[in-house]
Write a structure and sequence with these properties.
The chain is mainly alpha-helical. It contains 17 helices and no strands. This is Multidrug resistance protein Stp.
Length: about 475
């Protein structure tokens, strides 16, 4: 395979998940400005975030199933088109209702393209270059999470909030062109849809996610939250029953018998819980306690966000040599250590110099997690189930992040809150400590990934050369 062809495949699949992953974080940064411009109340602001989270989380498995039946490229392109069109509609919104509607449909587009991006990448590159390609793909996903506060602040301060959506339009159009030209479609002609599986999985994930995103605002023992949990539990129980009996299950539950697959999904859930929840409050610390602008706050976190760009070019070869499990374990341990460092130092008067190295360590750890995760996710499953495996991993990460923000939010409110600067710091410290502990448990869980997963006897020179070339293109 030509290097230019491989580069296009990685760019197309990586950029798709980058767009979807970045969107929510950028929107969160712009909420104060949107509140004023659209005269939105607190409930509307929450739904501008939650509408995307609900549809995205609920339909990830459905997206993987549709790709398996109708063709990965076709559904992938459909997802990009939906995401791009609704991004333009979101930027044109003049009311909260319009924006919330656009966000919900955006989530549908994201759910169609994100799990299939990994499937297309894994099937579209030669086996000897697979670890390297998956390394770049995973790192791009990590960058989306890390760069959200910085890009959101830059756009809001430099232009207007509408541009956080409008920028997706030209990027999406370019992505459609690249994907249409460079990607190949795979499908199973004899594959059958699993309608009961699709319905029960969607109901279950929707119920659980809806309960989590509404817990803080409505109360954890409110009828809405308890009812949603019950609704979700019934849906997931029905899903498991259906999949066990189905001749053509959407998610063959036998894939969880693979120790590596189960371990990486547990580690992914715990990582998302601890890290997403902690970053949610750290991004606000510089604005609320230190009085910085959104852009200045994003710049302060740049040592965290820049590390993947420096680490990624070497990670493919490192994973080839040492295996995915060890690298994931070390990465999560570094993230846990970085969070613990921040928790021990953060205060109203904390100097930036006292925590900047913690950001660096966390950034290195983040790259070491995201880069080998894709390899570990796909290593133990048959090729025809790679889309399903990707959908499962994306689902647990998304739900883990929602649980993390909700749980650490409750700890934050109990220990302090938004009432004062000292209250915010007290709540932040408690939340980050819990986040660090959860991520450390994820590091321990990743030790159960077999050392052979992702490992090669000998890394090829092609990987090293291609690594340098693609690293320059991404930068």
């Amino acid at each position: 395979m030509k290097r230019s062809k491989l580069a296009l495949i990685i760019i197309a699949t990586g950029l798709a998940q980058f767009m979807a992953g970045l969107d929510n974080l950028v929107v969160t940064t712009a909420l104060p400005v949107i509140k004023v411009h659209l005269h939105a109340n607190l409930s509307s602001l929450e739904w501008m975030v939650n509408a995307y989270t609900l549809s995205f989380s609920s339909l990830l498995l459905t997206g993987a199933g549709l790709g398996k039946r109708f063709g990965t490229k076709k559904i992938f392109l459909l997802g990009i088109a939906i995401f791009t069109i609704t991004s333009g509609y979101a930027g044109l919104s003049t009311t909260s209702t319009q924006l919330i509607t656009a966000r919900a449909i955006q989530g549908i587009g994201g759910a169609l393209m994100v799990p299939l991006s990994l499937t297309i990448l894994a099937s579209g590159v030669p086996h000897e270059r697979r670890n390297f390609a998956l390394s770049i793909w995973g790192a791009i996903g990590g960058l989306a999470i890390a760069l959200g506060p910085l890009l959101g602040g830059a756009v809001v301060e430099g232009a207007s909030w509408q541009w956080i959506f409008w920028l997706n339009v030209p990027v999406g159009m370019i992505l459609l062109a690249i994907a249409a030209i460079s990607l190949k479609s795979t499908s199973e002609k004899d594959a059958k849809l699993d309608p009961l599986g699709l319905i029960t999985a969607t109901i279950g994930l929707f119920g659980v996610t809806n309960a989590l995103v509404n817990g803080s605002s409505h109360g954890w023992i409110s009828s809405l939250v308890l009812g949603s949990f019950a609704f979700g539990a019934i849906g997931l129980a029905a899903f498991i029953t259906v999949e066990l009996k189905s001749k053509s299950p959407m998610v063959p539950l036998s894939i969880f018998r693979d120790r590596g697959f189960s371990a990486i999904n547990v580690a992914s859930t715990l990582m998302s819980f601890g890290m997403f929840g902690s970053v949610f409050f750290l991004a606000q610390y510089f604005q609320i306690v230190r009085g910085l602008s959104p852009l200045a706050s994003g710049v302060r976190i740049l040592p965290w966000t820049a590390m993947p760009l420096l680490v990624v070019p070497f990670m493919g070869r490192i994973v080839d040599r040492f295996g995915a499990g060890r690298i994931v374990a070390i990465g999560l341990a570094l993230q846990s250590g970085g969070l613990a460092w921040i928790a021990s130092q953060v205060s109203i008067t904390t100097s930036y110099g006292s925590i900047v190295m913690a950001f660096v360590i966390s950034g290195i750890g983040m790259a070491m997690f995201f880069v080998p995760t894709a390899s570990a996710t796909l290593a133990g499953v048959p090729r025809e189930l790679e889309g399903v495996a990707s959908g499962v991993n994306n689902t647990v990460r998304e739900v883990g992040g929602v649980i993390g923000i909700a749980s650490l939010g409750a700890i934050f409110s109990t220990s302090g809150g938004y009432g004062s600067a000292i209250g915010f710091v007290n709540g932040l410290q408690s939340a980050i400590i819990v986040g660090a502990i959860v991520v450390l448990v994820g590091s321990i869980a990743s030790l159960f990934i077999p050392t052979s997963v992702g490992r090669k006897k000998k890394a090829t020179n092609d990987n090293v050369e291609l690594s340098s070339m693609l690293a320059l293109q991404i930068k």
